[in-house]
Design a protein that fits this description.
By secondary structure, the chain is an alpha+beta fold. It has a five-stranded antiparallel sheet, with helices on one face. The chain has five helices and five strands, in the order H-H-H-H-E-E-E-E-E-H. It has two domains: about 60 residues, no CATH class; about 100 residues, Alpha-D-Glucose-1,6-Bisphosphate, Chain A, domain 4 (2-Layer Sandwich). Helix 4 packs across helix 5.
């Protein structure tokens, strides 16, 4: 019962699947303005279709099921495909890899977290965090190490380049 009460307090569009990509009906500004607890739709607490929506609304809404930009999501997976994944959440837009040790540097390992921040294909729509560890000289335990800040930017740029390629190939 508490879930129903809480559902009425948030943005009704946050739980509705919508089509992602450049043809999305709502931009991020509309979504942010709608998060203030006010229902932007007129009619009822849950919008014009009520709690379960109308048949017409369900026919129009043919979403992909991914709550982030599909091009950025696919490009992120393509870019880091050489590292095993621990978690990939398309609704939250977060990809987390396992530790990866390159063959050329066996005393170093890295882990990557990619976060998709927007439904639009934008340069600031993706953020990458790289974590690095090296083996300590005494004991051989893994110790956190400094990551060159350029590494995060280079991976973000590779993802954006791949996303643009996918968009062009998709004909959109």
């Amino acid at each position: 019962m508490a879930a129903v009460g809480l559902a009425g307090c948030g943005n009704p569009n946050a739980v509705k699947e919508t089509k992602s990509g450049p043809s999305s009906d709502r931009n991020s500004r509309d979504m942010i303005q709608g998060l203030g607890g006010q229902n932007r739709e007129q009619g009822s607490l849950f919008g014009p279709g009520g709690l379960f929506g109308t048949k017409q609304e369900k026919q129009i809404d043919n979403g992909t099921g991914v709550a982030v930009n599909a091009y950025l999501w696919r490009a992120s997976l393509d870019t880091i495909n050489f590292i095993p994944l621990v978690s990939a959440d398309p609704f939250g837009g977060v990809i987390i890899t396992d530790w990866y040790t390159p063959a050329e540097t066996p005393n170093e390992r890295m882990k990557v977290q990619v976060t998709i921040l927007d439904r639009d294909l934008r340069a600031d729509g993706v953020r990458v965090a790289v974590f690095k560890q090296t083996t300590s000289p005494r004991g051989g335990n893994w110790v956190d190490a400094q990551v060159d800040p350029r590494t995060n930017i280079d991976i973000e740029n590779a993802i954006l380049t791949r996303a643009r390629q996918l968009r062009i190939a998709g004909g959109s």
